[in-house]
Amino acid sequence: MSEHKPAFETRTIHAGAAPDPATNARVTPIYQTASYVFDDVDHAASLFGLQAFGNIYTRIMNPTNAVLESRIADLEGGTAALAVASGHAAQFLVFHTLLSPGDKFLASKKLYGGSINQFGNSFKSFGWEVIWVDSDDPQNFDRAFVPGVKAIFVESIANPGGVVTDLDPIGAIAKKHHVPLIVDNTLATPYLVRPFEHGANIVVHSATKFLGGHGNSIGGLIVDGGNFDWLADDKFTQLSKPNPSYAGLELGKTFGNISFAIAARVLGLRDLGPSLAPFNAFLILTGIETLALRIERHTANALAVARHLQGHAKVAWVSYAGLEGDKYHGLQQKYAPKGAGAVFTFGLKGGYDAGVGLVKNVKLFSHLANIGDVRSLIIHPASTTHKQLTPAQRAAAGAGDDVVRLSVGIENVVDIIADLDQALAAL
Ligand SMILES: *Cc1c(COP(=O)(O)O)cnc(C)c1O
């Protein structure tokens, strides 16, 4: 065997998959089963004791999901992955694996609106406290450290503003304090940004977005970078202490550089239960096969639309890191040299009313709360996704009253621009 490592595009199609051993089916089948027959009593006992890897019950593992897990681990450059029911479930299981009641974590203020709710409100019931940090100055993360902080969470390209995060210095700060850096790579995908090459220890995805790519299934992924020492101190007790539900097994010691992914599966997924249906795993796998082609077109279209809007009389500003002169253009060239993705915001001179009017007037664009679809999507965050936030939180998250967010699809860009032009003209 040669040492040749296939390129990214090739791995989006082949990584983790092989013809089905039982049937020779070329495409990964949907293993639509709840459970799996044990070879014998000893086999069953070794599976339950984690002495052997194998299938027990689809809440915890499934062969279709396993192909998706191997593929995303390969594409991100991690050691192992876990597929779960949604992006939010992925975040929940990551923090469940890391934190105990009373623990804290730092998170960028520039996040998906749903993550701001999850971290700021729902996580309180678990006794986990988020400390918000303005990520534009990475040193703010260092300044925000207090006892009990056990993780840092950022988005590589932040929703909704098309902001690019300066990962290297944030990774260095995480390392200095010996806490994992968790990067939500949903908007970038591993085609555009490589978080593990910039200090990340855990990557999460909403596979609902560009990975699945067709707006047809909810799913989430957790990728273990295999590059964090969970046993260096006693901060991460799920990994470092004997586990009472596995007869005192020490997960960190036993599973080494895949122990985070294992713990998220055998504690988090087993006990909290947000498993991904194998049918959704199949659709997400199929989506990933065209990831590189789609993202190329998505980013080329987005850049053309952003340039067009920049010159439009009714547009006050455009925030897209792909534009020369944009505040984040330098960071985009460093971290996302192939392009700034397809999600960005712009401001309308007519403010809140113009934002509401624009989403009423578009015809090709769909007005909905999603991103990362082959279809072009539009939303006015202040009246929808970010409505539950305070005006100050909205402004900090880049979702003020005049802001419109686009997720530019892969239709012909002439049609995309024509639709925005007619909708703006009718304001
Ligand atoms: C959509 C999204 C999430 C949440 O994912 P779901 O699959 O909707 O649960 C998290 N982070 C980002 C950046 C997202 O866009």
UniProtKB/TrEMBL annotation:
NCBIfam families, alphabetized: OAH_OAS_sulfhy, PRK05994.1
Gene Ontology biological-process annotations: cysteine biosynthetic process from serine; L-homocysteine biosynthetic process; transsulfuration
A GO molecular function held by the record: pyridoxal phosphate binding
Name this protein carries in UniProt: O-acetylhomoserine aminocarboxypropyltransferase
Entry keyword set: Pyridoxal phosphate, Transferase
Keyword Nucleus: no
Record bears the keyword Transferase: yes
A GO CC annotation given for this chain: cytoplasm
